[in-house]
């Protein structure tokens, strides 16, 4: 795969990945040739419907899921909203009041998850926020303690978008399964089924959701092996088109739609399906699956090269996290005694694009993720690498950092 060269060095892949040229061709094809509404009954509409079904099969295969478990959305933010608010509202429709429900998240979740919880808090839904260690890994002991009989959903992201920490999703799933078993047995002994919500349906609570938007490029996402009930993906993080993503929903999980209209996506996401974007998203995931192993090694080597080069500058630069469970494409660094925003602008003037924090924290003074791991967010920069990052790019970036610091 090739991409038109640019004199600038783009090191902000965690914020947005450029669309792959192969994917762009698919988007163009379905924009010009397969343009009909998939809900239409005539020939072109039937063809569009077949394309939609094909995309579901391909995305489902990527996750080792079933096609009917894939719900296409406008992106990761909408998928997170549908997962969290949709699961709470599903219980509301069955007579459970907001005040009798509880949700659990981690302190480093994406802002779209945090804001969903804030929305629910305003309606009297209770919540607990689980802390992390200095490497950004969720405190499993605390997590196990805060899950309650009335916990509706636990949401913990797979890979953090600011520091790259990879969460122990499989272990979290085990904790949730133990909680389900304990609360179900407790309900039987007490004669009350309200605690685990078993009086209305066969859904097992709490539901486990993970925002995996940053994960697909370097982590295998087998929903069965991981024990996940709901999973969020975003096309713009995997070299696909903007404005599309999906929510994986296990068959036995109950959700209520948060967008109302024509009842597309089995009534869970109304709106005419954007076939060009959806087909581009499916093709992007196909390419990721083919390249993942090779790219993990290549990008991991670039990360090591960058860390070694920063350490050789001898300016007291700190990187985080350096070791342990961390995605190879994200590196957060601190440079003592710098103003990170001014430093970013200097890098930009020299042709390098990076960030000081998540682009979704535009209106916040500092990063809550860095505060959670006790890092100085005022001197921190995030560099993220991707498909078109080269060793020469890293070398040139290090030279420019050294020049600015000098």
Percentage beta strand:
5-15%
Helical segment tally?
11
Task: Please estimate the helix content.
Answer: 25-40%
Largest sheet: 7 strands, mixed
Number of strands: 12
N-to-C order of helices and strands: EHHEHEHEHEHEHEEHEEHEHEH
Tell me the span between the first and last alpha carbons: 38 Å
Shape: globular
Output the radius of gyration.
22 Å
Strand order of the largest sheet: 2-8-7-6-5-3-4
Report mean pLDDT, rounded to a whole number.
Answer: 92
Low-confidence stretches: none
Helix/sheet category: alpha/beta
Question: What does the model show?
Answer:
- Helix 1 runs antiparallel to helix 8, helix 2 runs parallel beside helix 8 and helix 3 packs parallel to helix 4.
- It is globular and about 65 Å long.
- It has eleven helices and twelve strands.
- The mean pLDDT is about 90.
- The two termini are about 40 Å apart.
- With about 400 residues, it is α/β, with parallel strands linked by helices.
- Helices cover about 40% and strands about 15% of the residues.
- Strands 2-8-7-6-5-3-4 form a seven-stranded mixed beta sheet, sandwiched between helices. A three-stranded antiparallel beta sheet has the order 9-10-12, with helices on one face.
